[in-house]
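Blackboard transcription, Thursday session:
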Amino acid sequence: MQDILIIRQPKHREEYEAMYNLRWVCLRKPWNQPKGSERDNGESNADQFIAVLHDKVIGTARLHKINENVGQIRYLAVDESYRKKGVASKILEAIHLTAKNKFITYLIINARETAIKFFEKKGYKIVGEGPFLFGEIKHKKMVIQFGRSDLRMRSIIENLKKTLLTED
Ligand SMILES: CC(C)(COP(=O)(O)OP(=O)(O)OC[C@H]1O[C@@H](n2cnc3c(N)ncnc32)[C@H](O)[C@@H]1OP(=O)(O)O)[C@@H](O)C(=O)NCCC(=O)NCCS
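(Written on the board underneath:)
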């Protein structure tokens, strides 16, 4: 069977459950955190991303808006046996595209120290200290700003919307 990695939203309950389970296994279980601790009350207002290979959810992340211009990425995780193969990179590409389509200018993440190098490779910069989780996980707050050409595209689209609205 051909190996085709697909990045998309979950389609049905089983995929949502697989997504939450992957979050829990990668980001909560090793620190003895209970099931349920991998979710918060922002789930329904967020864009969920899953990486699917041969019908199996092997990666995930979430994007939610903090305000008009700023989005936050949370819960990025890739199944341990599929790491260092470019899966998180593909998820991040999809998130960046979605963020730009929503006219988000800045994306922020509280990056675990073990993931800082990954985000640096993707253009994120450390801007401050992040939370200290479960008594042992240090984070840095990291940010990426999208370029001027993306901002210019925003003004073009906004103008286009006005034009369309004023025509009959
Ligand atoms: C961090 C994580 C999501 C990276 O996923 P991945 O699919 O292995 O990442 P990719 O294969 O797309 O890596 C892209 C690049 O970053 C590098 N990279 C990935 N993880 C890295 C790490 N922990 N340390 C250093 N470099 C790393 C890769 O080597 C690759 O480099 P290259 O482009 O020079 O070849 C994954 O290790 C993971 O799920 N970790 C546990 C959960 C976690 O900590 N999530 C982040 C919460 S902030």
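Lecturer's comment: Residues 160 and 166 are 10 Å apart (CA to CA).
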